Amino acid sequence: MESVTASESAPKPKKITVKLKNIGDAPVLKNKKLVVKASDTLASLTKVLRKMLNLTLHDSLFLYIDTTFAPSLDSTFEVLARCYAVKTTGDEVVELQYSTTPAYG
Predict the structure, then answer these.
(1) Is 74 within a domain?
(2) Is residue 7 part of a domain?
(3) What residue ranges are annotated as transmembrane (predicted)?
(4) Predicted model pTM
(5) Contacts with 95 (C-beta within 8 Å, 6 or more apart), sequence order
(6) Is residue 80 part of a domain?
(7) Which of 36, 40, 58, 65 is deepest in the core (most CB within 10 A)?
């Protein structure tokens, strides 16, 4: 009987590409693509985005999908990818728009 190490038996966590686009008066990011774990939430991405955009906790940050609605901050990227991912070359890409002022509705 062969022994299996933990690294061989544990599946790699699923990764999802997030493509970011500025709207309104939001600054343009140099790096517009991020790779996140499927289990990460939108709230964790907002923390990263705030650092990348040099926003304080008092500055507003709005995220949108399909330029129509703001997803809940407790949504995981696994759920967002299942419902809204754009398939490109076999990879799941979630496209998000960000703004520092309300852009829709």
Answers:
(1) yes
(2) no
(3) none
(4) 0.82
(5) 18, 19, 21, 65, 66, 84, 86
(6) yes
(7) 36
Question: In sequence order, which residues have a C-beta less than 8 Å from that of residue 38 and are 6 or more positions away?
Answer: 13, 14, 15, 16, 76, 77, 78, 81
Using CB atoms within 10 A of its CB, is residue 10 exposed (0-12), middle (13-18) or buried (19+)? exposed
Nearest by Cα to 96 from 17, 27, 13, 9: 17
- The total number of structural domains that make up the chain: 1
Percent of all residues in the chain with a pLDDT value above 70, rounded to a whole number: 86
Q: How far apart are CA 11 and CA 58, in angstroms?
A: 39
Q: Find the domain containing 31 and state its range.
A: 15-99
